[in-house]
Amino acid sequence: MLKLVDIIEDDLNKLFLYETEDGYTIEGVFYRGNTLCISSQVGCPIGCVFCASGSKGFFRNLNTNELLMQYKLAQKILRGKITNIAIAGIGEPLLNFENVKNALTIFKNDNLKVTISTTAYPLKNFEKLFELNHNGVTISFHAGLQKTRKKIIPISEDLEKIKSILIKKLLPLSSRQRKKYQLGYLLIDSLNDDKENLKAFAEFASSLKLQVQLMMLNKVEGKPYKPVSEEKYIEIFKFLKSYGLIVTLSNRYRINKLGGCGTLCVNRWKNQVQ
Asked: What does the domain layout of the chain look like in residue ranges?
């Protein structure tokens, strides 16, 4: 049985630390006043170079009850404030597809809005994702070229194969239906912020009229990667907008040092967070 062992908070986010029955701690974060970001695995095998979640390796999938209990335990503390669930914490949801699908169904039956973030790995489950009753999916591209994406996401599917599935699944949909899907691009200084990657990415996103989430990198201790400058960030934002794209920027909750994107990890305790 999952139990809540600590809550660490600042003026923006609340970081929930949960302990599993076999002694691991996982994390979730409450942000924006209504959204709980939950984890799907203990650790992560994908190995995104900028992210803390897989830095200690992969241990196991969370079962359906552990997915649900992250919400139930937090909701007791927050007294009904949670209306949205983001399956975007530690782990790759598609590698725990059946448990994520089961939890999604139960969350939706409780009238919660549920979104999922994924690297699209593995492809067989990525295709199944389009059949689920979710409220939105963010696909982590983080590059326009396969050679660059492979450096950023070592365990990943070929970018062209992901694009083919998106074309097949999204082209038949109306513009309104496509709004449930967006592409994520996290900018890393001197790695994926060049014109070649950005142009290839922008051309594909605009071909399907997909919204883009342009993210700033959160610095993680022990990782050598740096965020782009504020000036470069705005310059790239304007470049993507020039393709007619709707582009959302990282908000203050997502770049917060407490539970911001890419900062959740396994077996972290209070004295290590502050």
From this structure: 3-273
Q: What CATH superfamily is the domain 3-273? A: Aldolase class I (3.20.20.70)
- pLDDT tens-digit series, residues 81-132: 999 999 999 999 999 999 999 999 999 999 999 999 999 999 999 999 999 9
Half-sphere exposure of 11 (CA within 13 A, CB side): 1
Q: 């705005």: which residue's tokens?
A: 234
pTM of the model: 0.95
Residue 41 bridge partners (DSSP):
61
Active-site positions read 27, 261
Provide Rg for the chain, Cα atoms: 18
- Give the whole-angstrom CA distance, residue 196 versus residue 116: 28
Contact status, residue 248 vs residue 214, Cβ threshold 8 Å: yes
